[in-house]
Write a structure and sequence with these properties.
There is one protein chain. The protein contains 4 helices and 6 strands, in the order ββααααββββ. By secondary structure, the chain is α+β, with helices and mostly antiparallel strands. The chain has a 4-stranded antiparallel beta sheet with strand order 3-4-5-6. Strands 1-2 form a two-stranded antiparallel sheet.
Length: 179
């Protein structure tokens, strides 16, 4: 005995139309005999979710503000180190020559390399010798590391050796607070 799937009354298995509810049993059987939908492979699903999770994590890691802060701090450290190297070279030049040079070119490759490293981080070193004394010797200077990037600190130093900094979008000067 066979049961009609619509009205659930017993009917003959060879019947094409249910005598009680008039359901077309042939088309109903064909749809039931059709292949059921395949279930997703659990390993493939896990792999897709894993790839998606890694992509989201990598995207978030790239845009997190801490990474930008680290880049800024690294650039500022390179600029400060460049200023210290130039200061050291200027002190050595003063001890040897009794005067500060007219330009940083006189200090050689070490200073040129420090300036290039600072420039690679978005800083420009600006050296200005002071006025010459009556004996023709220059005993003062100003040295700046000017930031080319918004939000980076600019630095200033002079013959006193005190390093000063500002976050304002202007060159640092002798009135800024010491670092």
């Amino acid at each position: 005995m066979y049961v009609c799937p619509s009205c659930e009354r017993p009917i003959n298995q060879a019947t094409e139309i249910c005598p009680y509810c008039e359901t077309d049993l042939i088309s109903l059987r064909e749809s039931l005999e059709a292949e059921p939908p395949k279930k997703a492979n659990p390993i493939a699903m896990l792999a897709r979710w894993g790839v998606l999770l890694i992509a989201v994590w990598a995207f978030l890691w790239l845009i997190m503000p801490e990474r930008a802060v680290d880049q800024r701090l690294q650039a500022e450290q390179v600029a400060v180190e460049a200023l210290r190297q130039v200061q050291s070279a200027l002190s050595g030049y003063l001890a040897a020559q009794g005067s500060f040079p007219d330009s940083l070119e006189a200090l050689g490759d070490r200073v040129r390399s420090a300036a290039q490293q600072a420039q690679g981080q978005g800083y420009r070193l600006v050296y200005a010798p002071g006025h010459a004394a009556p004996d023709g010797r220059t005993r003062s200077y100003t040295l700046e590391a000017r930031a080319g990037n918004y939000g980076y600190r600019s630095f200033y130093t002079d013959e006193s050796g005190v390093l000063r900094a500002t976050r304002e979008q202007r060159p640092a000067n002798a009135l800024d607070p010491p670092l």
